[in-house]
Specification:
This protein is α/β, with parallel strands linked by helices and about 300 residues long. The chain has a single domain, classed as Metal-dependent hydrolases (TIM Barrel). Helix content is about 40%, strand content about 10%. It is built from 14 helices and nine strands. The protein is globular. The relative contact order is 0.15. It holds the Pfam family DUF6282. This is Cytosolic protein. InterPro entries: DUF6282, Metal_Hydrolase.
Length: about 300
């Protein structure tokens, strides 16, 4: 999957990248345009010896994709895992959809993303995020019932995740909703929790993030937001360095959030952003904590040989 625009990788950088786990890959199929499919993503990941990939779709259970591609993936170099996002396409906060994903081998459940009220509000205007809600008859999904309490379905979802010992993320929910989701998850034995892009869509400040981490969660930052080949938001690397210094590498995760048709390949995100972090004084040890060890734990690979 390399092309003429793919950056060169020095042996020193390859050593830092070796064994990283990407928890945020947007390969296809998807109703949003994708540059690569899941098999191609596995081969591309081998360029820098990534240990594993987690495939995310906003719209469907990616475990079923991977099972359909199992013969091709069996000989592909990088293990690939899937899960389900709790948007309206799968019935929202739907214990049945979660139980199916788990039964078929899923490693992650994403809280509502494109169906969350926070996402819908954030993308009312054209900001570059693909929007085909009307085509898919997207509906808002909440973790609450009609009384304002965390719904029974949400509680059951966290029980299923806790029993399976897999990853739960806050999706694109607002901060208060993520707090309530993670509180229920913690009560039901969920050990692996993740907050996505706190300063994009979610709108969490440093204090908000600290409160979410108090439930045992990690915070994820995405390489797509710091890569010059991605138009928006196009943040400087100093912003990411500042987040790492505030939160600490022990609870920080850095993933690609790449695979979209118009964007660089996921591996190119690693090559550019990790080199930039090293150039800006982040130690190799801390980088590997964020891209290898924390991510392996969240995907349930910490005990694998």
């Amino acid at each position: 999957m390399t092309d003429s625009s793919s950056p060169a990788v020095s042996p020193a950088l390859l050593k830092v990248l070796d064994g990283a786990v990407d928890l945020h890959v947007h390969s296809g199929p998807s109703p949003f345009p994708r540059r690569i499919n899941h098999v191609e993503a596995s081969y591309d990941a081998a360029r820098i010896n990534l240990r594993a990939l987690l495939i995310k779709s906003h719209h469907h259970n990616t475990v079923m994709d991977l099972l359909a591609m199992r013969d091709l993936l069996a000989v592909a170099p990088t293990p690939v895992y899937g899960g389900v996002a709790l948007n309206s396409e799968v019935g929202g906060v739907n214990p049945s959809a979660v139980a199916l994903a788990i039964k078929m081998g899923g490693r992650a459940v994403w809280g509502p993303t494109v169906s969350s009220a926070r996402h819908i509000d954030a993308h009312k205007h054209d900001d570059g995020f693909p929007n085909n809600d009307s085509e898919l008859e997207e509906e808002e999904v909440s973790i609450y019932d009609e009384t304002g309490a965390v719904s029974a379905a949400t509680v059951r979802v966290t029980q299923l995740i806790g029993e399976a010992d897999i990853l739960l993320t806050g999706g694109h929910l607002d901060v208060d909703s993520q707090r309530d989701l993670f509180a229920a998850a913690r009560d039901n034995g969920v050990r692996r929790m993740l907050v996505h892009h706190p300063d994009f869509i979610v709108g969490a400040d440093e204090d908000d993030v600290e409160s979410l981490l108090s439930y045992g969660a990690y915070v994820e930052h995405e390489m797509s937001m710091y890569h010059p080949g991605v138009e928006a938001p196009g943040w400087p690397i100093s912003r990411l360095v500042d987040w790492i210094q505030k939160i600490g590498p022990e609870r920080t995760v850095i993933d690609s959030d790449l695979g979209q048709k118009q964007n660089p390949l996921p591996v190119d995100g690693y090559i550019h952003v990790v080199q930039q972090l090293l150039d800006h004084g982040v130690s190799e040890k801390d980088v590997r904590q964020m891209i290898c060890r924390n991510t392996a734990f969240l995907l349930g690979l910490e005990d694998a040989a």
